Amino acid sequence: MLRTVKYGDNKLIADLLTREGGRVSVAVKTGSSAKSRTKRQLFQPLTILDTEISQTPRQQIAQLREAHIGEVYTTIPYDGVKMSIAFFTAEFLSHATRDLHTDPYLYDFLEQSFLWLDASERGTANFHLMLMMHLTRFLGFQPDTESFCKDSFFDLREGRFCTTAPVHPDFLNKEEAQQMLMLLRMSAHNVHLFHLSRDERNRITDFILRFYNIHIPSFHELKSLAVLREL
Fold it and tell me: Of 85, 96, 144, 158, which is most buried, counting CB atoms within 10 Å of its CB?
């Protein structure tokens, strides 16, 4: 579950990322009844749902026939830091996967990442950095780590390290390039070993988003970024 938009007086449009169908928008009826309130609770950021969806080729909005929780989170809804990260991640993915076609491997990667965030007690403050960098391999612009050498710059347009600064302004300096390499080495197994200050995480988040803006022209400014900066 990525995001919802109010539609009329008693409907929501929910954007879902599905394993078999890629990005799908569905209409969700809402109201004041207890059943409707329960249904709205299903459509929270990063919720993993089991759904039955009906859609014809001409329909932009699919019909949601059935929905229930597929995996129950035990910590994310009750942890302020994790919840802020979930809101940011959902908004980020809403933009990053906008034109994505069906990719079961990407879906599996994201689902396992969300379950890791829910279960983990260490390294969660760096979760969004790790996820954003690993996502690039599914989107087609994963940085070339083999081009790294000591005192490299990083060309954001080409997605590779270089020994001299590019003539254009879209590059990372030597310190930032070193951080880029560090991010690419992060995994669920070692993320807790990377101790970053709030300022460091914010600077790294900024240059990752800059990287995405270059490679996904339709990528927009994220409203939830301001909250993430305070973690």
Answer: 85
